[in-house]
Amino acid sequence: MTGLKAHSDLDGESGIAARLQAVRARLDAAVLRCGRDPAALTLLAVSKTQPQAAVRVALAAGQRHFGENRVQEAAAKFPALRAEFPDLRLHLIGHLQTNKAREAVRLFDVIESLDRPGLADALAAAMAREGRRPALLVEVNLGDEPQKSGIGRAAADDFIADCRTRFGASLIGVMGIPPAGADPTPHFAWLAACAHRHRLGVISMGMSGDFEAAIASGATEIRLGSAIFGPRPATV
Ligand SMILES: *Cc1c(COP(=O)(O)O)cnc(C)c1O
Question: Is residue 3 situated within a structural domain?
Fold first, then answer.
């Protein structure tokens, strides 16, 4: 861990605003150390399991990008908030079942978990029916771990090329999570190189424990949950 843990003296609503500010300062410092532009880094606040009130506090503090890992949970929390904050951007970062593709297309602005041909089929059909085109990221299973989502490394280039043909400019980037316990840097470097090969601008990688390494490797989007909202109330 790099110290982005919840502080026990920062509980409740003021805690969220204070943690958000502290996190932003650390992200900006890490970006500047790499000679990059802080404005080019998107902070995604991962609000899974957090109540709507917590999301509203983050919105009031200026946060606009949110990540959820379940369609049903996002459907319960976000439509009302979107009416209040029309510029909020909702990202799906969890595994997507094909039978939920249509609801996901209705609800999300960015779907980061496109990881298999069957889901590409379902999303293409859902986009056609809904007349709505969320931006898409291909998720790569960086460690080729059987229990994790994501297209395997060996299949990633062909799958990305197919998605580019099929979705055109809606395909904007790649997402990945390095295996727990491994040095994340080679995994981040692989994902960044993959994005560059395919001329994709968005590289979503880095969480609370490894965001500095991710930024050094070229991340354009960092996903932080507990560092902003505190410990999650329920198991995920
Ligand atoms: C939960 C989650 C995160 C955030 O995790 P924290 O440890 O709370 O920062 C980031 N990315 C994905 C895909 C997640 O599921």
Answer: no
Nearest alpha carbon, ligand 1 atom 14: 93
Q: Is residue 80 part of a domain?
A: yes
**What is the tally of structural domains in the chain?**
1
DSSP 131: T
The pairing of beta strand 135-141 with beta strand 42-46: unpaired
Given this model, what pLDDT does residue 208 score? 87
Please give the residue range of the domain that contains residue 118: 8-228
pLDDT at site 6: 46
Average pLDDT across each block of 10 residues of the chain; the chain has 236 residues. List them in order. 44 82 95 93 97 96 97 97 96 98 98 98 98 98 96 98 98 97 97 98 95 96 94 65
Contact in structure between 136 and 103 (CB atoms under 8 Å): no
Domain of residue 82, CATH code: 3.20.20.10
Say if 114 falls within a structural domain. Answer: yes
Beta bridge partners of 176: 140
| Cβ atoms 133, 141 nearer than 8 A | no
Predicted pLDDT at 7:
44
The closest-lying atom of ligand 1 relative to the alpha carbon of residue 44 is 10
Q: How far away, in angstroms, is 188 Cα from ligand 1 center? A: 16
User: 84 in a domain, yes or no?
Assistant: yes
Quote the pTM value.
Answer: 0.93
Cα 142 to Cα 165: distance, rounded to the nearest angstrom: 23
Q: Which residues line ligand 1 (CB under 6 A)?
A: 46, 48, 69, 93-94, 177, 207-208, 223-227
Question: Which ligand 1 atom is nearest residue 175's CA?
Answer: 13
